[in-house]
Specification:
single chain, four-stranded antiparallel beta sheet
Amino acid sequence: MRILLVEDEPEMGRLVASLVAEAQFIVDRSGSLEETIEAATRADYGLILLDRRLPDGDGLSIVADLRRLRPGVRIIMLTALDSLDDTICGLDAGADDYLAKPFRGPELMARIRACLRRPGAEPQPSLAVANLALDLASREVTIGGRPVGLHRRELALLEALMRRADRVIAREALLDEVYGLDAEIQPHTLDTLVWRLRKRLESFGAGVTIHLARGIGYMLTEAAR
């Protein structure tokens, strides 16, 4: 699951992004209406956390555009505009939920989970390859039915590979999905992450392997017997 956080206040943006990332979501950030529309055209977001007071206008003004770009996206307004009229206006404009600042972190995460459970939200099935399974709703990885803990980046990489098992995924696509748009990372960071995940899966007996397609990307398949 990938979430777009639209917030122009740097400190608030860092706090919310950190909170959401701790729940194993990949978080991209934008700080204006223009950046948000551009991001939504480039990546498939399951949910958008949208501020209203942005440098180039009211976040509500792009709700309809976001839904046209990503029909299944969920939108939660996070804003200091907290009157009853503001809340009604936001919901009537098409937001799925409206949360006024300041808010508590656990409440935000509960609202995100509730939003993603509603009918019409992006389906959250389980993925399975060989002995390996990933529950997309709980973010739990199991191997042979036993829970296995993975770091956030490892989990994001595993999900990307399992969603397209037996197909080569280009490095650029994996970088975007695992680290977010426009992330500044060292050239071999992805290779190191793949190596670490491959070793962990092999040590737990997952029955899968991650192949390098030299010059192209990576592919996850069942291990040869």
